[in-house]
Amino acid sequence: MVDWVVFDDLMKDYTMLDDIPVTSLPRHDDYQRTADWLLSHTKQRPLVGIICGSGLGLLADTLKAQDSFPYAEIPGFPQSTVQGHAGRLVFGELKGRSCVCMQGRFHMYEGHSLCKTTFPVRVFKLLGVETLIVTNAAGSLADGYQPGDIMIIKDHINFPGLSGLSPLNGPNDDKFGPRFPAMSNVYDKDLRCLAMDIVKQMGLSQFVHEGVYAMVGGPNFETVSEAKLLHRLGVDAVGMSTAPEVLVASHCGLRVFGLSLITNKVVRSYDGQDQVNHEAVLEVSKMRSHSLQLLITQLVGRMDMNNNTHF
Ligand SMILES: O=P(O)(O)O[C@@H]1C[C@H](O)[C@@H](CO)O1
Ligand SMILES: Nc1nc2[nH]cnc2c(=O)[nH]1
Predict the structure, then answer these.
(1) How many A from CA of 166 to the centre of ligand 2?
(2) Which numbered ligand comes closest to the C-alpha of 56?
(3) What is the pTM of this model?
(4) For residue 214, what are the β-bridge partners?
(5) Tally of structural domains, the chain
(6) What's the pLDDT band for 5 if we cut at 50, 70, 90?
(7) CA-to-CA distance for 161 and 243, rounded, in angstroms?
(8) ipTM summary value
(9) DSSP assignment, residue 205?
(10) Which ligand gives the minimal distance to the CA of 282?
(11) Is residue 311 part of a domain?
(12) 310 located within any domain
C-alpha cells in the first residue's frame, strides 16, 4: 500500500519537473486495495462520483442511505488540510442513484504531488463510477459574471499542465488509459445541454453561464497583471483545482461534468481597495450552495447511465 508519509519524504528532493522516482508512484494495486476496502465497507455501488469544492461539501449531507468514511480511516487515502474541506468520503443516493462524494479535495498548493491529488479519481473508477462531477469555487474574469453565479465548465486551461506538471507524468498504466489521451471534448456535451435545460426549468438562467475555467497553482490569488492576462486569454473563471482530476478522469474513460461557483470577481484594476480572501470565498459558496445542490441532484436524477467509454 502506498505510504504517503514515505512517499512525500521521497518526493521532497525532487522538483516536479525533474525525474520523479518512478518506483514510488502509486501502482494499480494501490488504487485497487483502497477500492476493495471501500467496497467491503459499503453496500453502495456508485455510478456517479462527485468532488465538492471549497465550501460546497453540504451536498454530501443531502445523500440518502449514507455510509461515510473520514479520509484518515481509508487505507491509502491522502488527507485534506484546507478549511472548508471536511475530509470525508460519503456514499449514498441522490434521486435513487448511488453516488460517492468527496467532501473535501486535495490541492497541489497543499504540497501534494498531482498523482496524490488525483488518487481518489482512479479509486472511483475501480469502484465502478462512470461519471465524475467536479465542483469548485472560482474567481470570475468574464464581464457580466457576479459573485454567486454558477458557471457550467465548457473547457479548461490547465496552466500547471501546460508547463509540464501532469498527474499522468511517469510510466503510463495502460489498464487505466492511453499514453496520449485526447482532451478536446473533455466536458461532456450532452450533460452540459441537460444541465442548461434544468437551469431553465429551475428559473436560474439569469445566474448560470457556460465558460472556460483556468487552473493556476495558487495558493496566492492573482496580481492585477495576471488577472488582465487571464482575461485576454479568454478565461472566464480561475481557480486552483479541478484540471488534474478531470485529466485523470478522462484518461480512464470517465464522463466528466464540471461546475464553478463564482465566489468573487478577480481584481483587474489598481484603483479601489478590493481584496479577495478565502473566508469571503467560503461565505459566498455557502450562500449559493443550495442552488448548486439542486442542480446537481436534478442532473444526477436525469442523466443516462451505462454509456461511457471503458478501457
Ligand atoms: O477546491 P476549490 O478549487 O473549490 O478551492 C478554491 C481554490 C482554493 O483552494 C480556494 C481559494 O479560496 O478555493
Ligand atoms: N486563483 C483563484 N482561485 C480562486 N478561488 C476562488 N476565488 C479565486 C480567485 O479569485 N482566484
Answers:
(1) 21
(2) 1
(3) 0.93
(4) 157, 238
(5) 1
(6) confident
(7) 8
(8) 0.98
(9) G
(10) 1
(11) no
(12) no
